[in-house]
Write a structure and sequence with these properties.
341 residues, alpha/beta, Rossmann fold, 6-stranded parallel sheet, 6-stranded mixed sheet, 12 helices, elongated
Length: 341
């Protein structure tokens, strides 16, 4: 049975009027109070009787510098649409940007429709944004980010483990000086990948050298120009690089080619995401593959299963990756020479 306003009032200590205002997102209820009321409402099953008739895939843009209309987003959307078709429910695509003049109204509408589950691509979301999401009445699953407050369930990429395994692959090839092509725009995914990069060094008793960390924009053409400027300073190169994403890796490949640096003979490189262009780059890029369509399908299954079961506690699910070996990595030159002597 659906919980009543009186039951939520008794559980929280707030009046039924305040409870009603919070559940309807009316002004005059501060964020902390609203969060407590909504959490109690979820715990007591206030929203659990609502049937999901559709799943809304929300592309949330905070800065727009990382999340864009890329093949990554398209593949997630395809997976979500496929799973919705299998379940016989509608899939709806919505883009919400912090810069939109009607941002507050649109977000309130999306998060307030209890008949429509929400899969929200939260790649760029900050903890402040997460506070807004915590007020959702609609069944909600965050994709590609996890709030420290654990205010909602989430489906994530296993960023730390995946990055660690990628760097360990380079170490197994004989590399000891491994640089980091680090996105200049820092989101949680990139922090976790940096953690994995450093973990691999620690596991093998190696030191990550700051001089080999190169901050680059996460967009290909900008990464290319920034990498070219770094190379013009004639720095000492490591024998390999791990890149935060494939866009950065592709920009670096173009800069290396223009400066006469051969990949992988002079320097090896690994990307992350396995975007469609990765197998067609010169050379084809070794990268960490994220099963994007499968991630979209799994997001819908988690969301609908939780709603059907009336679960209220937040859970975190990580999807594993695999390394796709192509032609951008080989043993360092010294190691090759040692093997032939």
């Amino acid at each position: 049975m659906k919980a009543s306003l009186q039951q939520i009032s008794e559980a929280t200590g707030f009046s039924t009027a305040t409870v009603s205002n919070a559940l309807n997102h009316k002004r005059g209820v501060n964020a902390e109070t609203a969060s407590r009321i909504l959490e109690a409402a979820r715990r007591l099953g206030y929203f659990s009787t609502a049937k999901i008739n559709a799943v809304r895939f929300v592309q949330y843009k905070s800065s727009g510098l990382v999340v864009a209309d890329t093949p990554f987003f398209a593949a997630l959307a395809k997976g979500i649409e496929q799973e919705c078709r299998t379940l016989g429910i509608e899939a709806i695509l919505t883009v919400i940007s912090r810069s939109d003049p009607d941002f507050d109204t649109l977000l309130e509408q999306v998060l307030g429709d209890v008949s429509c589950g929400v899969v929200l691509l939260a790649t760029e979301a900050t903890e402040e944004d997460m506070e807004l999401f915590s007020r959702a009445q609609a069944p909600l699953l965050l994709l590609d980010n996890w709030p420290e407050s654990a205010c909602a369930s989430a489906l994530l990429i296993s960023n730390t483990d995946s990055a660690c395994h990628a760097v360990e692959y380079l170490i197994e090839k004989g590399h000891r000086e491994i640089g980091y092509l680090k996105s200049s725009v820092r989101i949680k995914n990139f922090f976790y990948r940096q953690e994995g990069y450093r973990r691999a060094f620690a596991l093998h008793g190696l030191d990550a050298r700051e001089e080999f960390e190169v901050p680059l924009p996460p967009e290909t053409s900008q990464a290319w120009h920034a990498m070219s400027r770094w190379l013009e300073e004639k720095p000492r190169l490591p024998t390999a690089f791990f890149a935060d994403n494939d866009n950065i890796a592709l920009g670096a490949l173009k800069a290396f080619a223009e400066h006469g640096i051969r990949v992988p003979q002079d320097v090896s490189i690994i990307g992350f995401d396995d975007m469609p262009f990765a197998e067609f780059s010169t050379p084809p890029l070794t990268t960490v593959q994220v099963e994007k369509e499968e991630m979209g399908r799994l997001a819908v299954r988690i969301l609908t299963d939780r709603a059907r079961a009336g679960l209220s506690s937040a859970t975190k699910t990580q999807i594993c990756t695999r390394l796709v070996e192509r032609d951008s990595v080989c043993p360092p030159v010294l190691t090759q020479k040692e093997e032939t002597t």
